[in-house]
Amino acid sequence: MKRMKLLLGLAVFASMILAPGQRLQAQESAETKEKRMQWFDDAKLGIFIHWGIYSVYGIDESWSFYNHYLPYEHYMKQLDGFTAENYDPLEWADLIKRSGARYSVITAKNHDGV
After folding, report:
1. Which residues pair with 49 in a beta bridge?
2. pTM over cut 0.85
């Protein structure tokens, strides 16, 4: 379990320090892309987890300050209460697997910049 958390942490760290323009992108053949897209189509169910500071006060989306739902300063105050204290990637992965989902995506840094 410690090894999985370490590997996950390293992956997140690497994605944060490499700017999008610096990330290596392999050239993909049309056949490879077709197989990949077929897998995605066959998977049917996926889980997207938008886990951000907006969850502290139970706000349902990260565009709430942009849409004038609450002021930017109030939105950013949620940083004080947002921790990864209960983050358990192995438990989350098991739950996702048991749900029947074939893939999952978690936002570690959403469009709000946090």
Report:
1. 106
2. no
